[in-house]
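Postdoc handover notes: sequence design on the structure in folder B. Input C-alpha cells:
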C-alpha cells in the first residue's frame, strides 16, 4: 500500500489580482496541503479569499508567520510586498510557496533569494500554465534530457484574449497599478510565464531586445503595456516571445469566468532543432512532432507529472531542489528588467547579466 503523503500546514498571505483565490483552490487539491490560515490587507480582496479558503481571515499576516504550527507560507500578495513577506517567512524558518510574478524589481528578487538561501528554507516559484501543464512539463524534460539535440529556433506566442468591452479595471485593477507596485504591465504579469519556460529550456541568453505596446485603452490610460515582444540572443539561435493581453473584435461580451476559459487563451510554442520540429498547443488535444500529429493522451502515457507544491515538499523532505527555485526565478526577473531597459531604449540590445537591480520603469 502506498503511504499517505505528509500533510503540511499552509498559511496564505495575499490575494492580489485574485491570485490568492487560485492558489487556495490549487492547494485544496493537494493531498499534502492543509490550508489553516489566510490574510489579505485590501478590503476589496478579503471577501473573495475568505470564500476561496472557506474560513475567516486573520487580523494580520505576521500572526500567520509567527504561528509555530504553520510549515509553509504561500505568498500571493502584490509583487512589491513579496520581498518583505519572504524575508519574514524565511527568518521564521518557514518554507515558501511564492505565486507569480516573483517580484517587482531585480533588487527585490535578489532579497528573496538571499533570504531563502541564508535561512536554508526551501522555496518554489509557483508559476502555472507552462510549468504546470503536463504537455509542456514533459516537453521540458525531454529537451533538457537532450532528446531533440541542438536548438536552432524558438517561438512562444502567449496571450489571454478578451472582448473589447471587458471591464478589466473593475475586475483586476492591480494590473493597472504603477510599476513600483506591480513591476510593470503584461510583460511582467503574462510575460513571466513565457520567460520562465524559455529559461527552463535553454538557460540565460547573452543579450535581450524588446518592444512593448499599450494599444488597449485600459493600459494606455494607466501608462503600462498590455503586450510586448522579447528577442533573446543565445549565440547560436534566437528565441522570440510574444506575450500579453489582447482585445479581439471577434469576441462577444464576457465576464471573468469567460476570460479564464482556456479557449480564450492563445498559447503556441514552436521548437526547432537541427533534426526535429515540434509545435505544442498546450490547450489542444494534440501536438505536432516532425510533421506527425500526436494525441496528447498518447504523448502523456506513463508520464508522472508533479506539481509545484509537490516539488516543494519533495525538497523539504530531502529531495531535489525545485526546478523553479529562488535563483531561477530571480534570473527571470533579471531578463524581464533587461527587456524593459531595451524597450525604453527603442529596442537596444542589452547584455546580461545586469549589475543594476532597479526597475527601469520606476
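Designed sequence:
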Amino acid at each position: 500500500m502506498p503511504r499517505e503523503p505528509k500533510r503540511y500546514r499552509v498559511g496564505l498571505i495575499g490575494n492580489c489580482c485574485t491570485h490568492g483565490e487560485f492558489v487556495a483552490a490549487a492547494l485544496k487539491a493537494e493531498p499534502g496541503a492543509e490550508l489553516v490560515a489566510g490574510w489579505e490587507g485590501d478590503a476589496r480582496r478579503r471577501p473573495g479569499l475568505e470564500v476561496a479558503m472557506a474560513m475567516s481571515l486573520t487580523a494580520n499576516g505576521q500572526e500567520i508567520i509567527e504561528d509555530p504550527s504553520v510549515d509553509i507560507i504561500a505568498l500571493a500578495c502584490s509583487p512589491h510586498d513579496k520581498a518583505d513577506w519572504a524575508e519574514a517567512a524565511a527568518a521564521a524558518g518557514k518554507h515558501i510557496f511564492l505565486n507569480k510574478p516573483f517580484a517587482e524589481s531585480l533588487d527585490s528578487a535578489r532579497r528573496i533569494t538571499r533570504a531563502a538561501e541564508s535561512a536554508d528554507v526551501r522555496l518554489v516559484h509557483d508559476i502555472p500554465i507552462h510549468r504546470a501543464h503536463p504537455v509542456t512539463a514533459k516537453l521540458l524534460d525531454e529537451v533538457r534530457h537532450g532528446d531533440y539535440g541542438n536548438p536552432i529556433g524558438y517561438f512562444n506566442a502567449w496571450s489571454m484574449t478578451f472582448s473589447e468591452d471587458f471591464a478589466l479595471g473593475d475586475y483586476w485593477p492591480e494590473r493597472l497599478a504603477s510599476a513600483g507596485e506591480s513591476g510593470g504591465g503584461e510583460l511582467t504579469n503574462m510575460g513571466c510565464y513565457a520567460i520562465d519556460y524559455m529559461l527552463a529550456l535553454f538557460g540565460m541568453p547573452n543579450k535581450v531586445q524588446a518592444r512593448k505596446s499599450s494599444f488597449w485603452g485600459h493600459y494606455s490610460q494607466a501608462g503600462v503595456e498590455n503586450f510586448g515582444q522579447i528577442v533573446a540572443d543565445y549565440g547560436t539561435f534566437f528565441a522570440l516571445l510574444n506575450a500579453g493581453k489582447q482585445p479581439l473584435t471577434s469576441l462577444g461580451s464576457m465576464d471573468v469566468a469567460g476570460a479564464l476559459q482556456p479557449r480564450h487563451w492563445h498559447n503556441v510554442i514552436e521548437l526547432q532543432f537541427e533534426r526535429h520540429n515540434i509545435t505544442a498547443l498546450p490547450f489542444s488535444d494534440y501536438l505536432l512532432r516532425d510533421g506527425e500529429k500526436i494525441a496528447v493522451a498518447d504523448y502523456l502515457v506513463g508520464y508522472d507529472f508533479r506539481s509545484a507544491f509537490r516539488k516543494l515538499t519533495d525538497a523539504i523532505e530531502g529531495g531535489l531542489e525545485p526546478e523553479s527555485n529562488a535563483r531561477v526565478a530571480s534570473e527571470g526577473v533579471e531578463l524581464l528588467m533587461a527587456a524593459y531597459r531595451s524597450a525604453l531604449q527603442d529596442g537596444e540590445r542589452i547584455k546580461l547579466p545586469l549589475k543594476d537591480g532597479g526597475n527601469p520603469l520606476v
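Context for whoever picks this up: The chain is about 35% helix and 25% strand. Don't rerun without checking with the PI first.
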